[in-house]
Design a protein that fits this description.
homodimer; alpha+beta; Arc Repressor Mutant, subunit A; three-stranded antiparallel sheet; 4 helices; globular; DNA-binding
Amino acid sequence: MRTEIPPGTLYMLILKALARFGPMHGYGIALHIQQTTEDVLVVEEGSLYPALQRMLVKDWVKAEWRQTENNRRARYYTLTPLGRKQLDTEIREFERVMTAIRRVIQPA
Amino acid sequence: MRTEIPPGTLYMLILKALARFGPMHGYGIALHIQQTTEDVLVVEEGSLYPALQRMLVKDWVKAEWRQTENNRRARYYTLTPLGRKQLDTEIREFERVMTAIRRVIQPA
DNA sequence: CCGCATACATAGGCAGACTATAGTAGCTTG
DNA sequence: CAAGCTACTATAGTCTGCCTATGTATGCGG
């Protein structure tokens, strides 16, 4: 059963994918997330590409048109230093909030 | 530093509070969540009361006007059987999604 | 050459939380 | 005993952020 991406986690997932594997194109990022989570998290195209555009503006990633292994045109995204910093921030914040939620739903 | 309630988790937090402590009024629920999470999660009034109204309609809770310990008028909410079932479902779903996210951000 | 997978992009919609505002009533303090 | 603070409920309107739907283009396998 697939789920929507929990609001607020999309940037983090994308940034992390780029941090792990270096430059990737959008389609590849989506595929990676879907496969890593065994289809639990599926990033729709209508979510992904607008998010990548916003990330370009924020200077979290930079983009470059290249050829894929399949000989197609694709836009490869690379994490910038600012993007890496953002990733750290988002992961820390995520952990903080999840810890808080656990305190409510799993009392000791 | 306080955070917004992650969208999709509000019902779960409210339901869990009622499951733990039995009937509570809205204000008490909000206070409980805030204190349990050491001010990380603060439920705004404009989030809480509309949520409780929706939960009444869905028959997850029932409500009853009573006096508080401080001798004030307040509306006490009680979990219904359907509400308890909903809580179980939401917690399971939450864990499933969090596990998926961890697979992406904390690769083994 | 047809169908499918790959790949990017945008417009518009909707859910769900927030901000702002409003009101009532009991306690507390000077 | 008046004023102000706290407890408590409630609603209208806004905004953020992901989704649905749609359109375009191209390479490869049968």
